[in-house]
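Quarterly update from the structural biology core.
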Amino acid sequence: MTAALLLALALVAPVSAGDAALYDRLVAGVAAAYDSARGGFVARDGLVSEAAVELALLHGRERGDAAWTQRGLATLDWTIGLLDSVGGGFYTRARDKSRETTAFDKMTVPNARRLEVLLLAHRVTGDARWRRAAARVVDYGERVLLDGRGGFVHGQVGDRQLVPESNGAMLRAWLLWGALDGDARRRDFARRSFDRVWSACWSGLPGLVRRGVFGEIGSAPLLTDQIEMGRAYAWGAHLGGRAVDLERARAVADTMLRAYADPRGGLRTRAVPNRKGVVRAAPREASENARAARFLAELAAVTGEGRYREAARALVAAFARDLGRPMGLAGADWALALRALHAPDLPARPEWREVPARPAPGAGGGR
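Predicted structure, tokenized:
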């Protein structure tokens, strides 16, 4: 049996009637939250739901539903209006672009998530305009956010310390961009970044942490850092084929499930031990748990280990009461997690090709 076939079998799990019904309810709630007057899948505060756009494109492709695809594309069209035509990069919200409140801290995470859905739109439609828009985000990333030593900074302004959440989101998008034409330079930069983030941020039981300029832990260890960087390591193993990235994805997941566990079920937003080593109480955020469930489901697919799929199911069960209520756009992350439990929407591994380095200016001849 080939490795490709084994992976295909690991990616698929049967869909129960309960999961199908829950998925349909969540999808219906997302559809009801679509508001063309605000830009589409855009919340009242002006924040685009990239998860809803992703869901619309995937659901539309899967069901052959052009209306869903069009909703996702219309929201992306509106979102492109948030691109800074001068300095590049996305503003987070429309109000950040106004003359009175122009923001200069165009953050890495929204740019990464929008790059990811632009590339998905290109894959779904084959329309080159989505790739061109993605190229503008990549250009901003290379000029402003990328650190040549490996990794990305947290935003346009601020210090240069590595933040796991930002790096996880951008490294996934960076791998997707490289996979378009199999440019191994993108893969190799991602690998260098994976190594640097691990060296700088991994701290054992709390997991990945944010450090200050002098190496001190700058804030409480956060669940979002484990989720986003853990997913990036799983994607790195899947797309790049490097065993150490899979080992790190497992380590992040195992630590996350231990250090952030809430006695009521689900995961806490942060893990801050007291002097006795007991983790202090912290709230649970439904949206973070939805993304954690997706990470675990994707890791189950990549590793073939059912324990991660069961852990993802436990997170869904822990929020059964919330999921029974109308969730609107917030339901998109949960719908994507349910999809990942059965057939994760992981991109295919490309045939990576080595690209010759460009000669230095003035090299290769002449006087």
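The CA atoms of residues 31 and 266 lie 27 Å apart.
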